[in-house]
Amino acid sequence: QWKCFVAIKVLNLQQHGASKSFIAECNALKNIRHRNLVKILTYCSSIDSKGNDFKALVFNFMENGSLEIWLHPEENGNNQTRKLDFLQRLYIAIDVASALHYLHDHCETPIVHCNLKPSNILLDSDLTAHVGDFGLAKLLAESTNSPSQSQTFSTGIKGTIGYMPPEYGVGSSVTTYGDVYSFGILLLEMFTGKRPTHDVFTDGLDLHNFVKAKLPRQVMQVVDPTLLTPGEVGAATAAAAENMDNDGSIDDSVRECVVSVLQIGLKCSTELPKDRMSMKDATSKLNDIKDIFLHRHQKLV
């Protein structure tokens, strides 16, 4: 007999906008299929035993939880000691980029997620990433021939502080470049270990400028030190870690890969939408970095 574990998302309909969120999530997910998107198995819209509206979504269960608890276990009361190494984080970044590229460029109507952040990225048993929570997603009106320039004229855009692009705060329309900004911030957070809302970011300093000021020569001052920690890491990353210099610094080839990833994060999170790269280009460049890293370090294994 076939069995599987599922995750059930029950909406709190007392919360403002919950019904609208339910409809948005159903509309966004009903016709899309991609290996890096959380798969909706079914949904329920009914009346509970007390006569109140009841709405729920049923998804595949993700054994390794959210990216949030892996990046910040100490803040989430999580006792896990495992850390994500460089290559694992790179694979996750590629997974997320691939999902956004699909939503923006390969759906009949382009979809903007509008709330990309670590807690909305779920990891399965193999640490493959799946983008979830489409409660704020927008289907774009096809106003131009370019999906990146298509826009929706919905008002009252919500999101998460630190990940929401600056143009949304001044009433600009939703475009795919908003997701690109969120992805850029996510990428910087994944490889520095710092949230965009970290206490260190005051007096005009933000995560983007924090990283930008240290590239390329001082990159190791901002990189999460657990990225190249030998131990519970992939073989290629362990080989790279063992190739460190005596003073603990990494060799130039590894540093170049780290710098390249962070540069993509910076390019995606620039203030002006027109200056951001597309998710198609981001996906391609991240795959190139992965291939370079594996080529240089698998031979050391």
Structure description:
With 301 residues, the protein is α+β, with helices and mostly antiparallel strands. The chain has a single domain, classed as Transferase(Phosphotransferase), domain 1, CATH 1.10.510. Helix content is 35%, strand content 10%. Strands 1-3-2 form a 3-stranded antiparallel β-sheet, with helices on one face. It has a two-stranded antiparallel ribbon with strand order 4-7. A two-stranded antiparallel sheet has the order 5-6. Strand 2 and strand 3 form a beta hairpin. Helix 3 packs antiparallel against helix 8. It starts with 5 loop residues before the first strand and ends with a helix. 39% of the residues are buried.
Condensed summary:
With 301 residues, the protein is an alpha+beta fold. It has helices at 18-29, 67-71, 86-105, 176-192, 207-212, 235-242, 252-268, 279-297, and strands at 6-10, 40-47, 53-60, 111-112, 121-123, 129-131, 138-139.
Mean pLDDT: 84
Biggest sheet strand order reads 1-3-2
The CATH superfamily is known as Transferase(Phosphotransferase) domain 1
Number of strands: 7
CATH level-two architecture: Orthogonal Bundle
The CATH topology is what? Transferase(Phosphotransferase), domain 1
Are there runs of 5+ residues with pLDDT below 50, and where?
none
Determine the number of helices (DSSP H or I, runs of at least 4 residues).
8
Helix-and-strand structural type: alpha+beta
Order of helices and strands: EHEEHHEEEEHHHHH
**Ends apart, CA distance between termini:** 42 Å
State the domain count. 1
Strand content: 5-15%
- Kindly provide the name of the CATH class: Mainly Alpha
Q: What shape does the CA trace take?
A: globular
Question: What about the largest sheet?
Answer: 3 strands, antiparallel
Subcellular location: Cell membrane
Keywords: ATP-binding, Cell membrane, Glycoprotein, Kinase, Leucine-rich repeat, Membrane, Nucleotide-binding, Phosphoprotein, Receptor, Repeat, Serine/threonine-protein kinase, Signal, Transferase, Transmembrane, Transmembrane helix
Catalytic activity: L-seryl-[protein] + ATP = O-phospho-L-seryl-[protein] + ADP + H(+); L-threonyl-[protein] + ATP = O-phospho-L-threonyl-[protein] + ADP + H(+)
Enzyme class: transferase
